[in-house]
Amino acid sequence: MVELREHLTSQLSQRLFLVHPPEPPPELLLAEPSDGIYIGKTRWLNVPVFWDYTKLINSHIAIVGITGAGKSYLVKTFLTRAAIIWESNAIILDWTGEYNKWVRQAGGKVVSLGKESLNLLDLAGLKVAERTKQIMSSFEILLDLHNFPEERYDIEEGLEKTYAKEKTPTLSTLVEVLEKNKKKHAARLLRRFLVEGSDFFARTSTLEMEKLAESGLVCIDLHSLPTEEMRSLAGLTILQFLKERMRKEELKEQKGIRLFVVVDEAWKIANDERSDVITIVREGRKYNFSIIVASQNPTDMHKTIISNVGTMFILRLVLREYKDYIRNSLNYSHYIDEAISAFGVGDAAVNMIFSSRSEKAHTFLLDKIDGEEPLFVYSIKVGNMNVEKEREEFSRMLYELGLTDEQINLVKVEFERGDGVLEASTFVSLLERFGYAHSSIMTFLRQLGIEEKFIVEVFSLTRRRRAAKGVVDLKLRDEEEGA
Ligand SMILES: Nc1ncnc2c1ncn2[C@@H]1O[C@H](COP(=O)(O)OP(=O)(O)OP(=O)(O)O)[C@@H](O)[C@H]1O
Ligand SMILES: [Mg+2]
User: Which atom number of ligand 1 is nearest to the Cα of residue 75?
Assistant: First the structure.
């Protein structure tokens, strides 16, 4: 590494005569591969950039850029490498459901909040007063309680009574208490969280918050919740639990970040001053975890986040309003501002605030985030169900089934033709053509995870199709024979 650094420095001094915007000194960007996460190379001097949080004022990250600019790709690359070098855990609060597939492919866990429940009144090791304060702050953000001071008071008082009444109460208990005390308006504000199909926060928790922070890669799919309000309440609550948990944890002198928490497109909780997203960023290094906030719309991100995060990635932005919003906080050159509108996918301006005393904030250009090849997924369509398998894994399964390389390629061609999707019946026809018996095809379909009732369906469909095709085949043969 020392040699590399020396080599680069000598190369750099030769190139410094060229005119270009200043880049941070290489010693701030380079790191041992096990100390930092590799991201890409600087545009002018081609210096490899390693994200080494020990050189930064804090480990929090913000990412902005128009749709398709590469925000999620950057997050995925980051989490993948962090898991490799530090065995970092990650929790993605997935607002739009876009991480779902990737997390499953990467061997992580997807928690669908629509199917789970999270008792809002869980204490999770906190004192009643502390938890009450947190719950009140969520309600303030979501129910505009500052406009209803009376109801605010009633709910707070109701919470105290509820906790005094029961050891493990739920929201239903709270609403009962409010109704009993004739606090009609307050009860009505909360009743929306009790409606059947929307009562995720009113039932006993099925989600084990204690385990979440150390379960490798976890995607919490908030997309499956019915409203933006519900998604925000879930996001806020999970952040509250995590924050308290990480606060209690001793700061161990160990390498790397233990946990990344990703909030992507969480506008409601990223621009409210009372939200824990802001508190976590503001408190900087206090916790041994790092928050990554991403958004298409920079104005959805509170200014505190933009000016306090140790690292900010600005991917392609076009709207003047959005660009000015960022530039007013970060103060980079006109040159960089212009470059941001001309970015291709993955190009970025990076703002880092270094902690060494002589260094301040630097914004520099990165030529394309050097990411991980995305996994390619094949999807086998059966009725209205899709069974997904990563391409290489699928090929391996076919190989084990006994297909030759040539045959595997034929299957691949069929998938690529359908943009990664293939009807199960077509797949079965292919296997039949290769000489496989029904019984072994059935076993294979089961191995893929296709449900029994669909397997029968697939075979009848294949048979019908073959019957129709048979006519054509016969005709062809007749013609050939005749010729
Ligand atoms: N650095 C990169 N190198 C190669 N391909 C990239 C890079 N960044 C993004 N891509 C590709 O560009 C596409 C869009 O990227 P991505 O999904 O990350 O965009 P996004 O900013 O998250 O968009 P949205 O706001 O709609 O969620 C993806 O197919 C991704 O694989
Ligand atoms: Mg995205």
Answer: 18
Residue found by looking up tokens 């013609």 in the block: 479
Using CA of residue 383, residue 384, residue 385, residue 391, what is the dihedral sign?
positive
* Ligand index nearest the alpha carbon of residue 345: 1
The model's pLDDT over 145-162, given as tens digits with 9 standing for 90+, comes to 889 999 999 999 999 999
- Residue, of 2 and 55, whose pLDDT is higher: 55
Residue type, 59: S
Q: What is the mean pLDDT of residues 261-267?
A: 89
- Helices 320-330, 334-341: inter-axial angle, 10-degree rounding: 140
Q: Assign 429 to helix, strand or coil.
A: helix
Please answer whether residues 80 and 106 qualify as being in contact, where contact means their C-beta atoms are separated by less than 8 angstroms.
Answer: yes
Q: State the virtual CA torsion across 170, 174, 177, 181 in degrees, nearest 10.
A: 180
DSSP lists the bridge partners of residue 351 as: 312, 363
Taking the complete model, does pTM exceed 0.85, yes or no?
Answer: no
Residue 437's alpha-carbon distances to 51, 402, 432, 454, 458, in angstroms, are 54, 12, 7, 18, 14
- Please report, rounded to a whole number, the percentage of residues in the chain having pLDDT higher than 90: 50
CATH superfamily of 20-111+207-367: P-loop containing nucleotide triphosphate hydrolases (3.40.50.300)
Ligand 1: centre distance to CA 292 (Å):
16
Here the tokens at position 269 are 């909780």
369 lines ligand 1 (CB under 6 A): yes
344 lines ligand 1 (CB under 6 A): no
Domain map (residue ranges) of the chain: 20-111+207-367, 128-191, 377-482
DSSP-derived letter for residue 373 is: P
Amino acid at 6: E
Exposure string of 459-482, with b = 16+ CB inside 10 Å and e = fewer, is bebbeeeeeeeeeeeeeeeeeeee
The amino acid at residue 155 is I
Q: What number of CA atoms fall less than 13 Å from residue 320's CA on the CB side?
A: 0
- CB burial class (10 A; 0-12, 13-18, 19+) of residue 270? buried
Those residues with Cβ within 8 angstroms of residue 306's Cβ, 6 or more apart along the chain or in another chain: 62, 298, 312, 325, 326, 329, 330
Q: Residue 264 Cα, ligand 2 centroid: separation in angstroms? A: 7
Give residue 479's pLDDT: 40
User: With 0-12 CB in 10 A as exposed, 13-18 as middle and 19+ as buried, what is 191?
Assistant: middle
pLDDT tens, position by position, 80-132: 899 888 989 999 999 988 898 889 878 889 998 888 889 999 988 889 999 99
